[in-house]
Amino acid sequence: MTDQQVGTFLYNYGFPTYVDICNKLPELLGVREELVAILQGRAASKGIGRESTYIVLTNKRLLFLHFPVFGSAKVVERQLDEIESTFYKKGILSGELVILWAISNGGTDFTHCDNKLGQKFSDICNEFLKNRLSEPIHQPVKEQKEQTAQQSTQSLADKLRELAKLRDEGILTEEEFTQQKEKLLNKFG
Questions:
Q1: In what order do the strands lie in the sheet with 52-58?
Q2: CA proximity to 96, closest of 130, 45, 22
Q3: Mean per-residue pLDDT pooled into runs of 10, the chain (189 residues)
Q4: Which CATH number fits the domain that encloses residue 12?
Q5: What is the rounded CA–CA span in Å between residue 31 and residue 1?
Q6: Together in a domain, 100 and 181
Q7: For position 139, what pLDDT does the model report?
Q8: Amino acid 137: pLDDT
Q9: Are residues 93 and 183 in the same domain?
Q10: What is the number of structural domains in the chain?
Q11: Which helix (H) or strand (E) holds 31?
Q12: SS3 95
């Protein structure tokens, strides 16, 4: 994603376009990683930074981008499966986004958020997480069993070939070959 694409996303999202985030996001986003939602606020967590922080939801992860007045940008990354949910507390001039973590009983608060964008971010985030969780993560059981049976058959055939080769090379006697073959057939049968 280029800085121009990031700028277009921010503009269409209704977010003020800032040069620092337009320049930083393209280098952070991975292959096939897309922006889903973004919000600016102040993190109440010491680990992220108490100045202006961007919260960026992508289709793969949640990023916190902190741009201090002095020094380079700090990036904190969290996986989507770590997020339990989000909610937004609307204030008079600005509000607070709370991200509840699935791993711990705690959460992370972001204050000084634009009310309209804060509620939008929370709604999009929760909807995205709900849709992501409803997608089947694992193969259906039938497919898994078929795949396992196919692997077992291939594995059995390979082992039988290996035994036959050892017999043909004279390493195993015919009797040893028959015993080992029976063991394999009983194991995989």
A1: 74-79, 61-66, 52-58, 35-43, 107-113, 95-101, 83-89
A2: 45
A3: 70 63 76 84 63 82 78 80 85 85 72 84 86 56 51 65 82 82 73
A4: 2.30.29.30
A5: 9
A6: no
A7: 45
A8: 44
A9: no
A10: 2
A11: none
A12: strand
Six token digits for residue 3: 């800085």
Return the SS3 of 92.
Answer: coil
Residues 59 and 29 in one domain: yes
25 in the same domain as 116: yes
CA-to-CA distance for 186 and 160, rounded, in angstroms? Answer: 13
CB 88 within 8 A of CB 121: yes
Q: Are 8 and 18 in contact (CB under 8 A)?
A: no
Where do we find the tokens 């997480």? 129
* 125 within 8 A of 86, measured Cβ to Cβ: yes
How many angstroms separate the CA atoms of 114 and 175, rounded? Answer: 81
User: Tokens for 65?
Assistant: 């981008």
Clarify whether residues 119 and 149 are in a common domain.
Answer: no
For the record, the structure tokens of 49 come out as 């930074």
List the domain range (segments joined by +) for residue 55: 3-134
Q: Are 112 and 50 in a shared domain?
A: yes
- Which is nearest to 159 in space by CA: 133, 135, 131, 188? 188
Residues 125, 175, single domain; the answer is no
Same structural domain, 117 and 151: no
